[in-house]
Amino acid sequence: MEAKIAFYGGAYGVTGSSFLLSIRDTKILIDCGLFQGLEFENNYLPYPCKLQDVDYLVLTHAHIDHIGRLPCLVKEGFRGKVIATKPTFQIAKIMLLDSAKVMREHYKTLYKKSLRKGLEPPLPPLYDELDVVECFRYFQIELPYSTPLVLKGEIKITLRDAGHILGSAYIEIEDLKNSKKFLFSGDLGNKNKPIVRDFDLPPQDSNFVFIETTYGDRNHRSFEESKLEFLQCIRKTFEKGGNLLIPTFALERAQEILYILREFHEQQLLPPCFVFLDSPLAIKATKIYKDNPSFYDEETLELFQRIDPFHLPNLYLTEDKEDSKAINLIKSSAIIIAGNGTLTGGRILHHLKNNIWREECSLVFVGYQPKGTLGRKIVDGAERIQLFGEEVPVKAQIYTINGFSSHAGQRELLEWLSPIKDPERIFLIHGEPEKMKIFKDILSTRFCPEKIYLPHLLEEIPLY
Ligand SMILES: [Zn+2]
Questions:
Q1: Quick one: pLDDT at residue 38?
Q2: What residues have their beta carbon closer than 5 A to ion ligand 1?
Q3: Which of 217, 221, 279, 280 has a 20 to 30 A CA-CA distance from 458?
Q4: pLDDT, tens only, 299-355
């Protein structure tokens, strides 16, 4: 046997993406994501392979569900080279440092609670900031898009634009000895969005395809429709005299929201308001965005040469805690963008406490809410939630705008697959099983159903 694949995360589930491709004696790990939500405890299991033997780790992009276990890997013995685009490395650094901080704070809270209630102490954080800094030394091969890199003279790796977040890539790996091509989608982007380019299309002769299926079951509304919906949310909320909260991840969505609000402002559509970017991480990420204009789409690049695409008057970047607390004094006409995106922690929880019980306020979800998160509970219609040990009624208007998603919908996933002629196997990954099954049925009209496979966690499959 010359090649096999093992699924260490993102298999029959959404989080923890990680796949080990072995081609003869070369071992290439694709992503090493953190398990999140209900799957979090999986992070404490030892990595299922001998990490000392892994030669390369290729990162598709810097979301934590694709990079978050990297410090664990290094602690467990990984000494290989990490390959990624320049923005992925830059963003990965701030994301991992933030992840260490979030875990430490979360641990402190749980620990105090366990003492108070006489419970078992919580599991310790997976890593600290020192472990994170240690793993940066393995960030060794910065690879631009569409620039082939040959490993050991027999394996070619090329990163292509996945159109998901700044620097995101899908990965083509070619076994030159056997002329076999592997394709790992990473997370594919939605189309016609601002800032990043649309995804590239893969080669038609790909043999083994690993495709994400986060939204394999549905199509998103168009971006333009979603913008209108967003504008209406803002207007309605301000007419009622409330604030509008946007829980968002620090990456891409936060920058997109700023970009859209600036557009609204320039088109004189935005009512008078304050906009707060209340997330130190999003503020840092926005700086990285400004540092990498060569990764923008044409329109954003053209704008960038004249203005700052992520700035508008009355935008306040509240890095300090005190500034963040001062937002509590504002009872109406504020747009508060804060992390984290699924309400499992971060400053957004304080804003929820101050606003979610007020029916004149709104909570606007612009991203995917995994099972087991507070965000999902609210989206599913919870009437009361627990915040800082207190029960709080949910009275604010809840909106979900899915057209801002940085994930491809079903239509885009199919479009990305469209050039591929006759693959040997298609593996559906990074999705909830029920959604994968819907996507499988649709794919079965184009490809032989026996070739489409839903791998399970820890499954290992020989390829040739
Ligand atoms: Zn992602």
A1: 81
A2: 63, 187
A3: 217
A4: 999 999 999 999 999 999 999 999 999 999 999 999 999 988 999 888 999 999 999
Q: Which residues contact 320 (CB under 8 A, 6 or more apart)?
A: none
The answer on 311 and 198 residing in a single domain is no
Pure H helices in 344-403: 348-355, 374-379
Q: How far is the CA of 164 from the centre of ligand 1 (A)?
A: 7
Using the 3D structure, point to which of 378, 404, 430 is the last residue of a domain.
404
pLDDT tens-digit map of 11-48: 998 899 999 999 999 999 999 999 987 888 999 999 99
134 in the same domain as 123: yes
Summary mean pLDDT of the chain? 95
CA of 375 to the centre of ligand 1 (A): 17
Domain that holds residue 269: 223-404
Q: Could you tell me the distance, in angstroms and rounded to a whole number, from the CA of residue 201 to the centre of ligand 1?
A: 18
C-alpha 106 to ligand 1 mean position (Å): 23
pLDDT of residue 283: 96
The confidence score (pLDDT) of residue 368 equals 80
- Give the DSSP H/E element, type plus range, for residue 410: helix 410-417
In this structure, are 146 and 239 located in the same domain? no
Q: By the 8 A CB rule, do 442 and 410 touch?
A: yes
List residues bridging with 364 in a β-sheet: 399
Number of domains in the chain: 2
pLDDT at 36 (0 to 100): 86
| Residue 197 and residue 85 share a domain | yes
Does residue 240 share a domain with residue 177?
no
Q: Residue 43 maps to which CATH number?
A: 3.60.15.10
CATH number, position 368: 3.40.50.10890
Domain-ending residue, one of 404, 424, 439:
404
Q: Where are the beta strands (DSSP E) in 24-97?
A: 26-30, 56-58, 81-84
Pairing of strands 334-338, 274-277: parallel
Q: How far is the CA of 132 from the centre of ligand 1 (A)?
A: 20
- Residue 214 alpha carbon to ligand 1 centre in Å: 10
* Centre of ligand 1 from the C-alpha of residue 186, in Å: 7
- Low-confidence stretches of the chain (pLDDT < 50) are none
Question: For residue 68, how far is its CA from the centre of ligand 1 (angstroms)?
Answer: 12
Q: How far is the CA of 187 from the centre of ligand 1 (A)?
A: 5
Separation between Cα atoms, residue 276 and residue 258, nearest integer Å:
10
How far away, in angstroms, is 463 Cα from ligand 1 center?
27
Query: Domain check: are 208 and 150 in the same one?
Result: yes
Distance 432 CA to ligand 1 centre (A): 15
How far does residue 263's CA lie from ligand 1's centre (Å)?
25
Joined together, the tokens standing for residue 361 give 């306020």
319 and 352 inside one domain? yes
Residues 59, 130, single domain; the answer is: yes
Number of helices (H), then strands (E), in the chain: 13, 22
Max CA-CA distance within the chain?
A: 67
